[in-house]
Amino acid sequence: MQASSDTMSVRDLIALHKAQMLRANPEYQRGIVWSAGQKKKLIDSVLRGYPLPGIYLHHVSTSIAGMTSQGLEVIDGQQRINALSEFAQGAFKLFDPVADVDAKFPGFIREQDCPWARQNFDGLSADLQAAFMATPIAVARIETEDANEVRDLFVRLQAGTPLSAQERRDAFPGNFTEFILRLGGKPEIARYPGHDFFVRTMALKPGQDRGKTRQLAAQIAVLFFHRRASGPEGACDINAAAIDDFYYQNLDFDPDSDGARRLVAILDKLAQLIQPGRHAKLRGHDAIHLVMLVDDLWDDYARGWEERLPEALDGFLAGVAEGNLTRSDALPGAYWTQYAQWTRVNSDRGDTISLRHRFYQERMRERLSPLHARDPQRAFGLIERSVLFYRQAKRCAVCDGPMAWDEVEVHHLAEHAQGGPTTLDNGAAVHKACHPRGAAQTAALRAKLEG
Fold this sequence. Notes:
By secondary structure, the protein is α/β, with parallel strands linked by helices. It has helices at 10-18, 36-47, 78-88, 107-110, 126-134, 147-158, 165-169, 175-184, 196-201, 212-230, 240-249, 258-273, 284-298, 305-325, 334-337, 350-368, 382-391, 438-450; strands at residues 2-9, 22-24, 55-64, 67-76, 136-143, 408-412, 427-431. The strands form 2 sheets. Strands 1-5-3-4-2 form a 5-stranded mixed β-sheet.
């Protein structure tokens, strides 16, 4: 095999393609598989001056019946050549980085001028058309008469391990990328050893898992900041698309913000309390719900819960293990039906996470009791409000109407001023506007619920 390096302009590649002198071998090449979005992003890259990967071409000379045909077989680069050719023929219009929100352009790109937005080739200015056609692309020309060598080269070119979703995110611009690298770790870079909660408490190995630790850190962060913005009553999706969206939407993320510092402080506390080797192995969903629970406890309750957290976690993990044993029973246990099975099905969906967390929150609250509110005037904390909110199917105990989370208050059925305990059995979630005032209204609500 002989190989030579050269460059070709986009114009030359398109001309060869149009003249059918560039072709793919269907015996081992796939067909045209790029989506419209992938094609548009490639052309956008060219117009921004981003260099494209090199193209590999096999010079083929075929003689039949005294006639000789010369051509170039595409070993690698078929999708790129096809996209360039289609655009030059006016087959599609390009993205507008601002208007086409689903295209997910980062903020710094959206702030730049884009004279080719929503334009096909004919809609470009003469200067842009000329620059596009003159763009140089590296080309490797391969000469060999042995078809097996060409196939072997093709296999080797395709054999590199593709980036995982999180490895790709590690290259995203913006401060959120840096924040997750510091939490999830990338030990080959000295400044990213990873947070102790992931590396020591969970015994994860960010240097060997191709981004899985950083992905878990990203999932926890996305959930955490979503709950801070929208309230603790629900969760968001944390699948690949949702995480990508968060990265792009938070390019100006502030790692010194109150929220970021709070998340780090919670992870610090968990790393201090949950000692390695003293519990069953923590899985990703265990870490997610631990962080959500501590976030719920952080402001409203005196810190007596801290010393009880390790034992409460042990009890919950034991319950899950027992629940798993009942999954084939006619009546499986609650730890299976309300928690464990939902770690296996759509586990990264917001509604599934919320469903699991309601059960987790109730069981952990039982094990952490007594919880003492920091503010005796408030009495009921966030966790009690959340439990009652869901127990009552999000409906007000007074008017029976639907409640939004920011409307929820909890009323003592036996009045707090008269010594009524701050317990779930003595609480009712109500609208702020429906909150009983005085002994008569409280007695009426108590009679309604008892009747």
